[in-house]
Design a protein that fits this description.
Pfam families: DUF3557 (PF12078). This protein is α/β, with parallel strands linked by helices. It has nine helices and 18 strands. β10, α5 and β11 form a beta-alpha-beta unit. It starts with a helix and ends with a strand.
Length: about 375
Amino acid sequence: MESSRPLAYESLKNILKHLSIDTRNKLRHNYPEIRTAESSAPLKIERLEFHNGEIVIDNRKYRFYKSICPMNENPASSKNRQDFDYDDIDEIGEMENFVDSMTPGDVLISTHRPNLARRIPDLFSHYIKYVFENLKTGYTNTKYLKNTRVRTCLKNIAVKMLGGRSSTIQVKNLVNGVHDGVISLPENLKLQVQNLSTNYAGFIEAFAPILDPDFPLESLNLGNVFTDSPWLQHNLTKKAKILKFGPLMRPHHEGLPPLSNYGIDLRAPWNVSNAEDVIGIVKRWMKSDRENGSFFKTTICRANHETVREVLKSELGAISKIIEMHEVNCPEHQTVECQSLQINELLSLIVYWIPLEDQFKGDLHIKVVDAV
């Protein structure tokens, strides 16, 4: 009989790893005898988002506000209720310190905060407004909680849904919208993230200890980042297979820094995508050890593309060729003209431009392909 237990245990783990996080947490709550197996079974999350006062786990959004209304009124129906995104002032109206409110497992993003401190008016009661939303069905439910704080509620959700895991949690898409303050997390949390998106570059350094260093990101979207930002040289950034960001230039900039990612996608083209930058990238790629399939993509105006094409022909000896492309913005079986440069006997570098709807701008692609 004893020899069958490991098989039953492993079989249970194998079943659990295919269930949603919500189903697994319900089973763990209702059947204590399976908690050990559940906590050690691999957990996969499709979507994990952090925002100020909010956490999204797969299709379930948990949003918390600080609310005040007159003492003699019901907060659910009061027309005098006020909701605030921030809950960082104490009972006498003093601004609290982010660091002082942290608990084990929490991640400090920034100590900077907007100056929103205000004393709760006399004869007003304060609540935490809790809004739950099922993003798949559209169902919502709102409650008003007493004697708690936003950070306490977020911590409880994080611990309940993500805590107590003896194995690393796999996350397909992680989105961070927290620009100041603390992200409430359970202790000893470890994540393997496939795609990460954040508009606040400081998040990378703060969140790095949570991420599995042996599991490089498939894609990293940094939003708008200055090209001399240290975050572009962070290990997480360097190891990401595909890097997406909107480059911002300071006065007298020196252009884009060298980037070694397999794919690079620039989404703020008016700042950097001039002909000189693109030509510089082509020249560097011709000398680098780029693997087959590597690509650089950005938006560039038609005039700059014409300049790029002429320089590639006159200075680098590029040859014009017609190729068939299957890009998102290019209908199937559409052919485009590309400039082809021979890297070596096996590889070529092609440069082509696909116009957008207004025909004035288009997506410029630089790509390493089999020799053409």
